[in-house]
Amino acid sequence: MAEDNLRAAGAGSGLGTWFDHHLYSLVASLGRVFRKPGAALLTVSVMALALALPLGLWLVLGNVERLAGNVERSREISVFLRQDVADARAAALAGELRARSNIAGVVHVTPEQGLASLREGGALAGIVDAVGEDNPLPHLLVVTPAGDELMVAGSLEQLPEAEQVQHDVRWRERLDGWLRFGGRVSWVLAVLLGLGALLVVGNTVRLDIQSRREEIGVLQLLGATDGFIRRPFLYLGAWYGLAAGALAVALLGLAALALREPLATLAASYGSSFALSGIDLPWALAVIAGASLLGWLGAGLVTGHFLRQTRPTGL
């Protein structure tokens, strides 16, 4: 019974020592950051810029995709009929299309209605008046599909009365392709610049290790474990990563704030209420946590390599 109590006390003491050393390493590594503010600021700034570039590209792509989503709500297909199609046939064709199960609705715009719409628009009023009584506009059927847009557009192109079928699906497909390409570019940049940030924090931690080389050698001779020696440097890298992540989020927030008003004004000139979407709190916390992990990994790689090279023989 007494032996069990001694083992429990030893385990509790070991756990407390482990926790105390973690706490000491956390605070001491933060103190080492503040002891060299110039070097720390340079490291954090380089890491923050490396993180902000791919993150900013992701934000831009997200806003473009959201704008594309607003555009995609308009699924109408415009069918311009031939000039020789009579009014009665155009009206009958509109009724036939409404009866199809894959078509939700059809709006028949007569040449007279189209000309009146152009005249009311103002920009082309002078040209419309110059035309005189001769109306060059054809009948227009604005079709809203209920099913597959490509299939509906293909069937409309087969109509004998159709002169031209205008549909935005091909434009949207190209836009989706560019968005996918931009997403791939952002991932490549994130990997490359993430490796750059890893090297920056690793080099900074390496310099700190070199300045404490003798201290580390003494600890190794006294039997300190690699984990004990590595721990303060891991927290040092994590502090650099955390500061860099916070600075990157702040830079992106300032950029979004600077661009929001001009973009809103530009969108309003086109009759749109589109507003730039910035950084929300969960996204910002995820960026800071990821940057801290990146700094931790960079410090761990450099410290591990150093300890393998300097481990005394016979230990």
From TrEMBL:
<keyword id="KW-1133">Transmembrane helix</keyword>
<keyword id="KW-0131">Cell cycle</keyword>
<feature type="domain" description="FtsX extracellular">
    <location>
        <begin position="76"/>
        <end position="160"/>
    </location>
</feature>
<keyword id="KW-0472">Membrane</keyword>
<keyword id="KW-0997">Cell inner membrane</keyword>
<feature type="transmembrane region" description="Helical">
    <location>
        <begin position="233"/>
        <end position="259"/>
    </location>
</feature>
<dbReference type="InterPro" id="IPR040690">
    <property type="entry name" value="FtsX_ECD"/>
</dbReference>
<keyword id="KW-0132">Cell division</keyword>
<dbReference type="InterPro" id="IPR003838">
    <property type="entry name" value="ABC3_permease_C"/>
</dbReference>
<feature type="transmembrane region" description="Helical">
    <location>
        <begin position="39"/>
        <end position="61"/>
    </location>
</feature>
<feature type="transmembrane region" description="Helical">
    <location>
        <begin position="185"/>
        <end position="205"/>
    </location>
</feature>
<comment type="function">
    <text>Part of the ABC transporter FtsEX involved in cellular division.</text>
</comment>
<comment type="subunit">
    <text>Forms a membrane-associated complex with FtsE.</text>
</comment>
<dbReference type="Pfam" id="PF02687">
    <property type="entry name" value="FtsX"/>
</dbReference>
<keyword id="KW-0812">Transmembrane</keyword>
<dbReference type="InterPro" id="IPR047590">
    <property type="entry name" value="FtsX_proteobact-type"/>
</dbReference>
<feature type="transmembrane region" description="Helical">
    <location>
        <begin position="283"/>
        <end position="307"/>
    </location>
</feature>
<protein>
    <recommendedName>
        <fullName>Cell division protein FtsX</fullName>
    </recommendedName>
</protein>
<keyword id="KW-1003">Cell membrane</keyword>
<dbReference type="Pfam" id="PF18075">
    <property type="entry name" value="FtsX_ECD"/>
</dbReference>
<feature type="domain" description="ABC3 transporter permease C-terminal">
    <location>
        <begin position="188"/>
        <end position="297"/>
    </location>
</feature>
<dbReference type="InterPro" id="IPR004513">
    <property type="entry name" value="FtsX"/>
</dbReference>
<comment type="similarity">
    <text>Belongs to the ABC-4 integral membrane protein family. FtsX subfamily.</text>
</comment>
